[in-house]
């Protein structure tokens, strides 16, 4: 049995001593637990985590899992609990709900298991139980989406906001940043947000309904991968391609196609690969008692027809 050394949880400026109540790992497993396994975005996280594990050779066994859907929060909680019961060395977690995952992450902390969050954070009450948070600055990313949308649309009109999972930290921040800029820098009227529950078919139907009920919509924002895909398919299906401004989020093959054919003006793309890779690497740093930042920004790139084939864009598309 490999002993897991007691380590410090490090914030931006202060260290908080971690509980030492059960600081023993039963295995060399690093468990990567995401919001859903059924998404190219999260599979790209898996690729990054797997590549990091390969670089460490036989030091760690990296595992990957997620529920069937992002809305299955209880199932994700069970996955974290099971990882703790297996005595993993560390957990890389993308929490689907900022509050529901706090008890499970606290349990990991009580058992001496480091947790690194990716993509979405926990509520304030859970801040001391995880050691680092790797993510896009979602508020800045949402603000960038709004700036690009205003540039293409102009100051006036109506914008439909297509969001995903209510309560998810990433959804709150992205739409919040988007909304702040729309209100401050334009006269655009907003409708929504509509919540697709991160389901493409739902987003498609919601977009059809929004466009059919509001003939004066001039722009749309799709705030995550399945939502943006569903939104773009609806725009194309109704014959609105090139007639409305549309900005999506994330960068799978379908969204790249919609940028190339002009259905989407552009996409805000995160480096999901880096979230997985740096997540595993950060767990290793913590286990080796190295200092890590409490928050690590993994960045975004705005991609449109003009730069989609650039090295910078190709580095984050998947």
Q: List SSEs in N-to-C order.
A: EEEHEHEHEEHEHEHEHEHEHEEH
Give the CA-CA distance, first to last residue: 39 Å
Percent range for helical residues?
A: 25-40%
CATH topology of the largest domain: Rossmann fold
How many domains, in number, for the residues? 2
Main sheet: strand order: 4-3-5-6-7-13
Q: Which residues sit in consecutive blocks of at least 5 with pLDDT less than 50? A: 1-23
Q: For the record, what CATH class of the largest domain applies?
A: Alpha Beta
Beta-strand proportion:
15-25%
CATH H-level name of the largest domain... which superfamily?
Response regulator
Helical/strand content category? alpha/beta
Mean pLDDT: 92
CATH structural architecture of the largest domain: 3-Layer(aba) Sandwich
Biggest sheet details? 6 strands, parallel
Number of strands: 14
Shape: elongated
Q: Please give the count of helices.
A: 10
Estimated radius of gyration: 20 Å
What does this protein look like?
The chain is α/β, with parallel strands linked by helices and 318 residues long. The protein has 2 domains: 135 residues, 3-Layer(aba) Sandwich (Rossmann fold); 133 residues, Response regulator (Rossmann fold, 3-Layer(aba) Sandwich). 40% of the residues lie in helices and 19% in strands. The chain contains 10 helices and 14 strands. It has a 6-stranded parallel β-sheet, with helices on both faces. The chain has a 6-stranded mixed β-sheet with strand order 9-8-10-11-12-14, sandwiched between helices. The chain has a two-stranded antiparallel ribbon with strand order 1-2. Helix 1 packs parallel to helix 9, helix 2 runs parallel beside helix 3 and helix 4 packs parallel to helix 5. The longest helix has 17 residues. The two termini are 39 Å apart. The N terminus is likely disordered.
